[in-house]
Amino acid sequence: MTKDEIKEEQIKEETPKGDWKQVVSEIFKFENVGDEIIGKLIKTEPSQQFDNNVYTLDVEGKNYVVFGTTILDSRLAMVPLNAEVKIVFSGTKPAEKKGHNDMKQFEVYTK
């Protein structure tokens, strides 16, 4: 996965002085069918703003945050922490209710 493939948003950019190493997470957004992220699932927590979970994946030493959906939450509930996981955006399904967004569909794989 190249940096060009990842839509990212820095949470904080300041670097403290001394021996401290800043912890930064970037947000991974699934925008195009086929977008994927592969990494170690290191944290699962409930969102403070929405009904879904927030997942943190370690991808080659960098942390990425993935916001859950109903489908992702149900599939990632079966994946233990520290397992390797691959999440693929496989398309959308038309909304069942008028005025709602189409539902993103995902495939989840683990080792």
Describe this structure in words.
By secondary structure, this protein is mainly β. The chain has a single domain (26-110), classed as Beta Barrel (OB fold (Dihydrolipoamide Acetyltransferase, E2P)), CATH 2.40.50. 6% of the residues lie in helices and 41% in strands. It is built from 1 helix and 6 strands. It has one helix spanning 70-76, and strands at 25-27, 36-46, 53-59, 62-67, 84-93, 103-110. It has a 6-stranded mixed beta sheet. A hairpin with a 2-residue loop joins strand 3 and strand 4. The radius of gyration is 15 Å and the shape is globular.
Major pleated sheet: 6 strands, mixed
Globular, elongated, flat, extended or rod-shaped: what is the shape? globular
**How many structural domains?**
1
The total of helices stands at 1
Structural class call reads mainly beta
Overall average pLDDT:
84
Radius of gyration: 15 Å
Q: Which CATH C-level class is it? A: Mainly Beta
Give the percentage of residues in beta strands.
Answer: 35-45%
What is the spatial order of strands in the main beta sheet?
Answer: 1-4-3-2-5-6
Q: Unreliable runs, pLDDT <50, ≥5 residues?
A: 1-14
Total strands? 6
N-to-C span: 18 Å
CATH topology: OB fold (Dihydrolipoamide Acetyltransferase, E2P)
Element pattern in H and E = EEEEHEE
From the coordinates shown, what is the CATH architecture? Beta Barrel
Considering DSSP H and I runs of 4 or more, what fraction of the residues is helical?
under 10%
